[in-house]
């Protein structure tokens, strides 16, 4: 009986863990950084974000490795703003998201914790478990890549930026709109 | 286009090897992070019949990502005993930013006002804390990897005349400029924030002064130029504490009383 009870508890915990859709971590490339004194200022600034659990800035590659707290809303826009407040610019964002059987495809709009993640150039597939998402908004990719990615979507919101009204009809946007690719 | 010009400039001066932008004698175009503050204490020391020490304290604060302010106060034992001299504020506003991987180019505008009075030796007003003055200008700083270059151009207006013996200098306006080069020599690569950083700096400071000179009631309009070369190392510990040392040599001076060569030392702590 005890064994059965423990097995049931174990099953419930395992199921809840696997189905918890959330951001796990992010690698954020920072431009303009050149010295450890500046990096420290950036790291301390980012630590002030409520959803940041741990952070480590690689001083050679100038990438901030961030782990997020569980069950808290993660805002990549807040990460960007904090880095800009520290005096620098975000070069790239790659974030690991724990999916729970989410089927994505071309121009799929994934709504998570009130924000919208628009998949650019994604083939139709079901995502489960940790998947790396690359943020491909204009400021995070080269001009050449932006032009190439823009051809992969029929929606203007990618070219026009983050204005919520850009995605219309079947593609309603709530909260902040991010563009991501797999 | 601007970046191309900057890279061209970098290539042109690449013989100077590579450095960092926390310049000793001048301010870079970069600002402190918004909401953070730092504290500085500094001293100029030179010989003038006796050993003269001028002390400075500065509190620095990042108001926004683009605007920062320094509150500063100076004092010295130049006359009799230690006494306070000048006090005031320095503000810097970031006008242009171009960030890249281990690269940035920034342009800022600055303004400074100092009240009180410092005993000046000439209209060059070359010492930190010289005043009372108002000044303003522009700073352009480029940094690529370990090399930092910075150019400052500005104007300073003295708010009081300077009397030395029987001579009086009035209507003093300075056109000041500086060119600073810095190079990060240690560490060769980072392992963490506890790595000590060692930078070396060479800074050329130029003061072109326009002024009226009065002797025995006879006034003439004069101008003179002084150039100082400052060389020195910098040590940064734990990515928060900074120690600067420099020796400033008066290379040329058109003033009757040229500025003496001087040592400069500073400690800075950043509260993050």
What does this structure look like?
The complex is a heterodimer of chains A (182) and B (272). By secondary structure, chain A is α+β, with helices and mostly antiparallel strands. Chain A has five helices and eight strands; from the N terminus they run αβαββαββββααβ. An eight-stranded mixed β-sheet of chain A has the order 2-3-1-4-7-8-6-5. The model of chain A is unreliable at 10-19 (pLDDT under 50). Chain B is built from one helix and 13 strands. Chain B has one helix at 2-12, and strands at residues 37-48, 50-62, 67-76, 83-100, 103-116, 133-144, 147-158, 162-164, 167-186, 197-215, 218-237, 241-253, 262-271. Chain B has a twelve-stranded antiparallel barrel. Chains A and B meet through helix 2 of A and strand 4 of B.
Features of this protein?
heterodimer; A: alpha+beta; 8-stranded mixed beta sheet; 5 helices; 28% helix; globular; B: mainly beta; 12-stranded antiparallel β-barrel; 1 helix
Short description:
With 182 residues, chain A is of the alpha+beta class. Chain A contains 5 helices and 8 strands, in the order H-E-H-E-E-H-E-E-E-E-H-H-E.
Number of strands of chain A: 8
Please give the alpha-carbon distance between the first and last residues of chain A: 46 Å
Q: What count of helical segments of chain A does DSSP give?
A: 5
Coarse structural class of chain A: alpha+beta
Mean pLDDT, all residues of chain A: 83
Tell me the layout of helices and strands:
The complex is a heterodimer of chains A (182) and B (272).
Chain A: H1 2-18, E1 22-31, H2 36-47, E2 52-58, E3 63-68, H3 76-85, E4 89-104, E5 109-112, E6 115-119, E7 125-135, H4 143-150, H5 157-160, E8 177-181
Parallel strand pairs in A: 6-8
Antiparallel strand pairs in A: 1-3, 1-4, 2-3, 4-7, 5-6, 7-8
Chain B: H1 2-12, E1 37-48, E2 50-62, E3 67-76, E4 83-100, E5 103-116, E6 133-144, E7 147-158, E8 162-164, E9 167-186, E10 197-215, E11 218-237, E12 241-253, E13 262-271
Antiparallel strand pairs in B: 1-2, 1-13, 2-3, 3-4, 4-5, 5-6, 6-7, 7-9, 8-9, 9-10, 10-11, 11-12, 12-13
